[in-house]
Design goal:
The chain is an alpha/beta fold. Helices cover about 35% and strands about 20% of the residues. The longest helix is centred in the first third of the chain and has 25 residues, at about 130-155. It is globular.
Length: about 500
């Protein structure tokens, strides 16, 4: 199915999804005769969430759909006119505006690391400035949630993870975009029906405590639900007392269903209490009753550390429903993604630009760059290097290592060892405002992300104190950065 990304990312209406200063700069660029100057911006993030060794990029499809349909509607222009800030020349320009950018991006689902460009935008200064806020909004949030989901799935160690976050999400868009990102990160389904319809994500869910409470007895509630949904019956057993009533009543109903000829897997959900202790007792009770291979789903404010602890304690849970702490990225509510100018074009070609900060970690890497990932003979990634566009990024692979420069100390050399092959990650997805290729479907994106995570050595995927993945500059970019750091004049 070729589904549209989200009702909020519909065919019109998002031109004003921007910070006001983007518009004031656009108008000023136009007054100064700078609007058509060709520039290059890059999107990257500065830091990973705490204790996280990698990020799963997400949000590209949403951004490309936004870019496809970026138009200032009549009421948008009228609203801007009412602010009494912009002249009629600029407002008239906006009425006919169509983005003319070229976009190169790492495929959605690519693993990414701090300070490497996963998206590059080239085009007129005015166009590239406008899209900054929307791009950051879409990529930062979805990448954050996809990354959190990947960690939760790593902790679950092969058990299915069900995303239950809608009711605690940050608004409708947080719910729908978050469900999409969680699926890319590895969740097998969502409770969010709109996300299921919009993106083709499998949906899951059974009943709440209110279903049980609406009947005179728990046993009657279970029987009626099983009668209506015999092929997808998961009974929530903790409304009153999990061990004294919930599990025994569920066992009664599942044995009745089997006696009636239903080939159903006995399945319960635990939503409170000591999940390790209760799951082990419930499993034993169901086994002793002759119910083989029971499915025990756990929920209740789960996240990766608690899941890992429960598994270490021998919990008999084999599916995990994760909501609040996934959809809100509870321990790290924002990704530090930024959008920075790295090059401008003049009469003789591209000139690098660089933000120099008193904090060297915030100094940007200058120039239009290629992001290249190197792999060893076992097809494991061993390091990434930022090359200048047009630079030979395979040079040195035959030696088994690549020599580059450190990002924060570009005068110092560094090696990426065991490099057997390289892969350029940035692909042209939009050229002069037109889509260059059809976006892959969400199942393909999810599969690609899972393959990438599986190929990453364990030291980068552990839940605490992961190894820091190597991201370095090429010799040429390192020299360029060192030269600009030493220069007192950043102007043309």
């Amino acid at each position: 199915m070729n589904l549209s990304p989200h009702p909020w990312f519909a065919r019109k209406g998002l031109a004003l999804l921007t910070d006001f200063y983007e518009l004031t700069m656009m108008a000023a660029y136009r007054r100064e005769g700078q609007a058509e100057r060709e520039v290059c911006f890059e999107y990257f993030f500065r830091d990973l969430p705490p204790h996280t060794g990698f990020a799963v990029t997400a949000g590209l499809h949403s951004f490309l759909d936004y870019l496809d349909n970026l138009r200032f509607e009549t009421d948008d222009v009228e609203y801007l006119r009412s602010l009494d800030v912009f002249d009629e020349d600029f407002l008239g320009f906006l009425s006919g505006f169509r983005p003319r950018c070229t976009v190169r991006a790492a495929p959605e689902g690519t693993l990414a690391f701090p300070n490497e460009p996963v998206m590059q935008i080239e085009g007129p200064l005015l166009d590239t400035q406008l899209i900054e806020s929307a791009l950051l909004n879409m990529l930062n949030y979805q990448t954050l949630i996809a990354t959190k989901a990947a960690r939760v799935c790593l902790a679950a160690d092969g058990d299915p993870v069900l995303e239950f976050g809608l009711r605690r999400a940050h608004g409708p868009d947080g719910g729908v975009s978050g469900s999409r990102a969680a699926y890319i990160g590895g969740c097998v389904s969502t409770s969010n029906v709109l996300a299921g319809k919009t993106f083709g994500i499998p949906v899951s869910g059974t009943h709440a405590h209110s279903w049980v409470m609406s009947f005179d007895t728990e046993l009657e509630a279970f029987r009626r639900f099983a009668h209506i949904y015999p092929d997808r019956c998961i009974l929530l057993v903790d409304t009153y007392d999990t061990i004294e009533s919930g599990v025994p009543n569920a066992i009664t109903v599942f044995k009745e269903m089997q006696a009636e000829g239903h080939n159903v897997r006995p399945a319960i959900r635990l939503d409170s209490g000591d999940l390790a202790k209760l799951s082990k007792k419930a499993y034993r009770m169901m086994q002793e009753a002759g119910l083989e291979d029971p499915l025990i789903v756990a929920s209740n404010d789960l996240e990766e550390d608690l899941i890992a602890d429960l598994k270490r304690q021998g919990a008999r849970v084999n599916a995990w429903g994760v909501g609040t702490k996934l959809i809100t990225a509870y321990d790290c509510p924002a990704l530090s993604g930024v959008y920075k100018l790295v090059a401008m074009k003049n009469d003789v070609g591209w000139r690098p630009r660089m933000k120099i900060s008193s904090n060297m970690d915030k100094a940007t890497d200058p120039g239009r760059k290629n992001l290249v990932r190197y792999y060893n003979e076992r097809n494991e990634p061993v390091g990434d290097m930022l090359h200048e566009v047009g630079e030979d990024w395979l040079k040195g692979v035959d030696n088994g290592y690549i020599i580059g420069r450190r990002r924060t100390m570009p005068h110092l050399s560094v090696r990426i060892r065991e490099a057997a092959r390289g892969e350029s990650l940035l692909q042209t997805v939009v050229e002069d405002g037109q889509r260059a290729a059809e976006s892959p479907g969400i199942h393909e994106i999810r599969r690609y992300a899972r393959e990438q995570i599986a190929a990453l050595p364990d030291e980068f995927t552990r839940l605490r104190n992961p190894e820091i993945y190597r991201v370095v500059l090429s010799q040429r970019v390192g020299e360029m950065k060192e030269e600009l750091l030493n220069s007192q004049d950043m102007a043309d």
